Request: fold
Amino acid sequence: MKFYFKLAATNLKADRRLFVPFVMTTSFLMAINLIMLNAYTSSDVLFSQFGAAAGRSLFMFGSVTTAIISVILVIYANNFLRKQRIQQLGLYNIIGFGKGELSKMMAIEKLLLLLTTLLLGGLLGTVLSRISYLTLAKALHVNHHLEFGLSQQAFSIAGIITISLFIILMFIDEIWLIRKQPIDIVREQSAGEREPKVAWLTLIISVGCLIAGYTLAVVITNPLEAMSMFFFAVVFVIAGTYGLFTSGSVFILKWLRNRQNYYYKPKHFINVSNLLYRMQQNGAGLASIAILVTMTLITLATTATLFFGINEIVDQQTPVDLSYSVKANHQAAASRVTELAKIHHVRVRSIRTFTGPSSTLALLKKDRLNSQNTISGPFGFDNARSVQLMTIDSYNQYTGEHRALTGNNILIYTSNHYAGKTLKIGGQTFHVAIRATNFANAPKTFIPNLFVAFPSETQMLDALHHLYPNKSSAELKSSVTTNQDVMLSGSHANQVKLYQDLNKSGIALPDTVQSRAVNYDDTASMMSSFLFLGIVFSATFILATLLILYYKQLAEGYADERRYTILQRVGLSLREVRATINSQLLMLFYLPLVVAAMHVGFALPSSSAS
Amino acid sequence: MSTLLKLKNVEKTYTSRGAQPVQALVNISFTVESGEFVAIMGESGSGKSTLLNLIATLDNPTGGEITLNGQDLRKVKEGARAKFRREHLGFIFQDFDLLDTFNVQDNIFLPLVLAKKPLAIMKNRLAKLAPRLGISDLLQKYPYELSGGQQQRVAAARAMITEPEILLADEPTGALDSKTSSELLDLLTDVNAQSQQTILMVTHSAVAASHSQRVLFIRDGQIFHQLYRGELNQPDFLTRISETMTAMLTKEGEGQ
Reply:
């Protein structure tokens, strides 16, 4: 046994240019898993004030995702490692190592790597977890003296993940050993590689996928659809990228090779033929890099946009400082709220009162407004409306205007254009008499607003009945409430206290109190968590990219060594060799970046819309 | 006939850190006339490959001088050596050294492409060369599709397409069976006879050497003996070479 440990240690040392990056990768992955798991186990503390459940599930999602990425990456790295060592393993086989001995040797190598990973990953993970915890706690306004941000549970889970990873790798290697004789593979490897053929079907399909993905991303402007279709766009683009790098590159390079005046120039001659030869093996690697870079950029961009757009989001969701509903025409509420505010050193600047039923989702078909119950079909930007009914008196009270309506005339306010001269609700046809161009504090949602003011309450309730056919008139009548929009001046903390007190006071109807200050805190904590996830994911993606790049370079370097020796003998100077390698490197480095930039260019308008 | 290659008191000593200096070549002097087919024979470790590397400008001698067509090789600067090689020298190697990324035609074109020759010239030369080497049907194939003998003929075509002043062959039959070996050697003899192509071949095989006009025996880094073929036919020359080798081995025995 001691012999195997010695042998394994010698192997690791001898092939350190392979094993050091491998251990660095596994350690980083363990650290990243630890960070996510620590955030997850501390989410109850981090989100103690707001949205504990949401925060928990968000970090749960993050933990699972990083674990999955770890599995994929580590398997990739291990496959590469084994490929590079085939010759060595074959040699051991020739000098008398049976499969049993080989698998024992490889298992002990894995054990040593695992121990190193646990140590390094644990240390790195501890430091980074602590840092990220402090950052998160600060962003979430949590008193971070409470806990250290490291949990035993997280360490155990991260340890189990890492150990399982290595067990998986051991199994994969074992299966490989059973299936193949290393000596066979040594022979296999030295056999020449065939000239790549253009896979026309793959090429056509992948171009189709890419066009489809881009079209989806560009054409769909409706955020509701964008959210669901974006996923399909992503799948199309990923499939297209893989196909394009593997078959498209062969197609382009063959085309270049057939242009004799271009091809038979020293630089192009070597580059084109080398790349052509290379693309078949490395198309997938390059595509992975392109996709990982794209994901990094999009993740960072969207989470950062969200983070830096907190104010905008809060303004949209809560246009006023404080709002609440009371029973219809409950007169005393305003003064009681004003008193409550005084206690908390908050001054009420203005109160707007609006009386009406709560807003509802309805379907607009030409000029007919239908209840959402009547149609079972897709909701879209085109037909769905957020409808708010009111009487003209309520309208006047809220806006301070003095409008008058009679008969079947109505006033409408829409957030997108409504051209019709009439509006049909149930059996009634109303004439659009007044079009309000502005409605203060109208909620800005994905679904366009349609506000309708009727001359009388009876007409309004009648219309409401058509939108809620299942509810009785009495129910509908009682659903009419008075809503008050209050503008305040006072410190953030005091406004939060006012909100909490108002909720307890029973002045407002239950669950109707909304505070901009509280919403700000909620949103900020959500967005900081998103950004945190974004940064952790991006770090993982970048790590994956670096790993693939490094291993690819290493593999190609060895493969090219012989080729460049021959070229030098035939008459290529060392300087020319260097220039050729450099230009090829740059090409292989920039190609995925260019494709990634293209993807991001198409994706960003769409992802920022949703 | 004029002197093409001239070596005068050439020495090569390898010095590596912490080890005794190794004298690979000691005081080597000989000349190769234009149009000659010369073989340098020796066991492995005799210094013959070192000698070829020096002539190929892949390495520098530690003493003496080498001139090709009157040009002192020491004065060819490092940066200009690649150009010098592709303009004046042609190489055939033991393991063919074809590039698997190119098809046969492009492998042969390689030195000309590096020399930035126009495509028309390349095609013209290949059209003349391919039938002579019997590779006309192979031009669009890839090295992995060829047999060893075919690969070596392609390598010969690559070496000859630059119309080099001297063709350097390093154990060209080392990886071939006896039948393809003799085919290749006949080919080299033909090329030498018909186009007055100067050939310098390094080999340890007496059969290979017997195709040349002159054999230089090298041992322990020194020219040990020289044998002219004169009017002998190839089998007789082979016998002479074998006898010489036996004599050499006997002497070696006596020396010990």
About this structure: Chain A touches chain B through 27 residues (CB under 8 Å). The CA atoms of residues 242 and 288 of chain A lie 8 Å apart. DSSP finds 19 helices and eleven strands in chain A.
